[in-house]
Amino acid sequence: MKDKNVYFYVAAALAILVPVPGRLAYGILMLLLFNIQIVTGVLFCHLISFFKLDDLKNSLVSIELIAVTILYKQLLILLCPVAAFTLGFLLYLPALSSVIVEFSFKDNSLSLSEDLRKNGIRNLIFSLAALVIFLLRDSIGYGTVTFPVWNKIAAFHLVQSTHATYASAFIATVPGAFVIVALILFCYIYASRQFDRIERSGGSI
Prior knowledge:
By secondary structure, this protein is mainly alpha-helical. It has eight helices and two strands; from the N terminus they run H-H-H-H-H-H-H-E-E-H. Strand 1 and strand 2 (152-157) form a beta hairpin. Helix 1 runs antiparallel to helix 6, helix 1 (5-17) runs antiparallel to helix 8 and helix 3 packs antiparallel against helix 6. The longest helix has 31 residues, at 112-142.
């Protein structure tokens, strides 16, 4: 895994996909926070460079990310208390893992616009993939599709009987999420090795 983006994706998956309940509604809220953290982190890193405080970058970025998370949680308490209660400490996991991985090994040579574009593309890829996984876990594991709305989580039932989802409920659990992440990582590593082999052989399959 030569591409350092892989470490970012793995850390993000372990912080968001695995511990968060397998509901699309919670996935939407976590990914919204995740993207806010990345954007504000990029802006804050460039502000740190502007004031030539690079030696304190890791400490300052950590404080900024925690502050953003606290503010987000307070807003979530006002808008959707049940989601804030359910997610609880999980809201802080991206700031303590995947986002820190990003900013600890950040390329400071990029301009602000290039940095935002690069992170925007990568976040979009991860967010779309994560939303699909949350949707599958919600629909297959629980037989519902959920969305965060004012003061509650709205659920649209795809099946009327809960017995129909018993056999597939594993996909919505934490072990099920681990299996999904492991399978995706395995497929990525396998595909990367195949492409590397093709490149070494001069492009012939």
